[in-house]
What we know:
This protein has 159 residues and is an alpha+beta fold. The chain has helices at 11-18, 104-119, 124-128, 148-151, and strands at 4-7, 23-24, 29-30, 35-39, 44-50, 56-62, 65-77, 84-97, 130-137, 142-144. The chain has one domain (4-151).
Amino acid sequence: MAFVREKITTEEDKALFNSFNFIEPMYKIPTTPRKWIIDRERNAFLTSIGGVEIPTCYAFVWNNNVILFSLFEKLNYLNSSKTEAEWSWNVLKFLAPKCLAEYEKEIIDMIKEAFIISKQPLGSVQEKRSTKYIFKFKKQPEYVLEGDDYKTRDVLREA
């Protein structure tokens, strides 16, 4: 199976989402489960946890490990007919548990894959558009101790 876009509608999925106690970083309130990009087979999902203002903050969960990051995202059309586009993501801060450091390439590849799925146009637009995807890190990923201390770190603040 691959990543798919889903609305979080079942009680089971809402309970899973809520089990991670995501906090909206700007307003410091619990994040409401709405939608995610999920791969149930790989036990992974990507979800926005806030960012009414730029940058946007996300959580990527893999095997019950939470990775928090903030980024700027931008869509550029490369021609006037909008048949060629470029999505770019510039990751500002990336926090993950130390136990995941050895899986960095695999995790980043899954995150890229989830973002690409999240931005693919639906229906007939998809057939007419050629899209490039660019994913960059402003700083290297930071691996920190597990536990509540790590989850409460301010992913919006640049270190």
